[in-house]
Design a protein that fits this description.
Elements: H1 3-15, E1 18-19, E2 22-23, H2 76-84, H3 114-117, H4 154-158, E3 177-178, E4 189-194, E5 199-204, E6 209-212, E7 228-231, E8 237-245, H5 251-256, E9 266-270, H6 274-278, E10 282-283, H7 291-296, E11 299-303, E12 313-318, E13 320-324, E14 329-332, E15 344-348, E16 354-366, E17 369-377, H8 382-389, E18 395-396
Parallel strand pairs: 10-16
Antiparallel strand pairs: 1-2, 3-12, 4-5, 4-7, 5-6, 6-9, 7-8, 8-9, 8-18, 11-12, 11-15, 13-14, 14-17, 15-16, 16-17
């Protein structure tokens, strides 16, 4: 277990940030970062224009110094500080929190929060999408065999250490690896691509049944929209036809409050029985067996992180750090980020069988402490799995499941 976590939990207990009901008001949900009003666009300097479709979103998209999503010179306002010299021009400068997009809150343009973002600036516009990332050898142009594109072999080229302030909450070190997606149990983990945009990780737990996160099938206005498809690692695809979420799941409450929400799970049914071809995983209520047993178990997790491209990246032998039985959630030390939502946490039996014991949900910010990653325990949805597999419950895609009362 990473040593800082035990210290952090002890500190929170000492100052009353945790009680019998679980994590309290010191935490805020990751799905929407703590929002600061964005700065109004500054008067751009230099040549070029703002004709890019992504202009004025605070993230520089010019190909030479930014993400490359725009043609050169068409994202002038967002790129001006990187091109003309970084400054502390952001209204939130010098508040101890990096506010650039990608490596911070996103409230300010790239390069306008120089002091606060200095410790993480080297991570700007870098990722691990190269096919040979995480192999311990830097292979970007000019290094190693040069087989990786520039800025795509991040960990191998600049190391695994990560400042605690970075949003990609890797607890000071990125310990992920690429897992072999063609081997058990990783073959059962795939992606859901939603018609409304966006996607998450999902896992086969039946011949035609997936488990993922409820927030993955909701639009920003809070409406349930499960229309989309599952893409398996072998390239097979299947449409989502039905879904089932807890009737008390409240997307707006999950998205805007500081409460842990153990209802962030969704069962999805497919129009093809891919599990008969690929296989599917069993389910285990590990946290229901007691906190002690749950915290000592090695966890195996993998998802389609935003920064690893089409590669399935994950964690081997990470751990639960706290169980909140009354909330159907647990906090963990596994390195997860955007795109990992809905990804499985698995436990391995002595006979080598893997079972899903939870799904990735969110993270919580703790003032003065690293973030806490939160997952939903399988015990919160196992009771619905049998009826859903038997087609006894479930809502057809395109129709609305009857809502219940607010979650307690």
């Amino acid at each position: 277990m990473k040593a800082w976590i035990a210290t952090a939990f002890a500190a929170m207990l000492a100052v009353g940030l945790m009680d019998d009901a679980g994590l309290t008001g010191a935490f805020s949900p990751w799905i929407k970062q703590e929002l600061k009003p964005g700065d109004p666009p500054a008067t751009p300097q230099g040549s070029g224009d703002d004709s890019c479709r992504w202009a004025n979103d605070n993230e520089c998209d010019d190909p030479d110094i930014g993400t490359g999503a725009c043609r050169l010179g068409t994202d002038r306002s967002d790129c001006q500080y990187l091109r003309n010299g970084e400054q502390d021009a952001c209204r939130w400068a010098n508040d101890g929190e990096c506010d650039e997009p990608g490596i911070g809150t996103g409230a300010c343009p790239n390069g306008s929060d120089r002091t606060d973002c200095g410790p993480v600036a080297q991570l700007r516009f870098r990722n691990d999408t190269c096919d040979t990332a995480f192999n311990g050898v830097c292979e970007e142009p000019g290094a190693g065999n040069g087989s990786c594109a520039a800025r795509t072999d991040r960990r191998d080229c600049i190391g695994a250490e990560r400042p605690m302030t970075i949003n990609d909450h890797f607890f000071g070190r990125d310990d992920r690896i690429f897992v072999p997606s063609e081997r058990y149990p990783w073959t059962m983990v795939g992606q859901i691509s939603m018609e409304a945009g966006g996607g998450c990780t999902a896992t086969l737990i039946g011949a035609d049944v997936l488990i993922t996160a409820a927030h993955c099938i909701h639009s920003e206005n809070g409406q349930t929209n499960a229309a989309g498809e599952f893409i398996a690692n072998n390239g097979e695809r299947a449409r989502i036809t039905h879904y089932f979420i807890d009737p008390n799941f409240d997307f707006r409450r999950f998205n805007t409050t500081e409460q842990i929400d153990g209802l962030d799970w969704a069962l999805l049914r497919l129009d093809r029985r891919l599990g008969e071809q690929i296989g599917f995983l069993q389910v285990l209520d590990l946290t229901g067996m007691g906190s002690g047993r749950a915290r000592t178990a090695d966890l195996y997790q993998a998802g389609f992180s935003w920064d690893t491209g089409d590669h399935l990246s994950g964690n081997l032998a990470c751990h639960i750090v706290a169980v909140h039985e009354d909330q159907n959630t647990f906090a963990h030390e596994c390195d997860t980020t955007r795109g990992d939502s809905g990804s499985p946490f698995m436990a391995r039996s002595s006979g080598g069988r893997y079972s899903v014991i939870g799904t990735d949900s969110s993270f919580r910010s703790v003032p003065g402490q690293p973030v806490m990653n939160i997952a939903v325990s399988s015990g919160g949805w196992m009771q619905y799995l049998g009826p859903f597999r038997a087609h006894q419950i479930g809502q057809a895609v395109g129709s609305r499941q009857q809502a219940g009362s607010d979650p307690k």
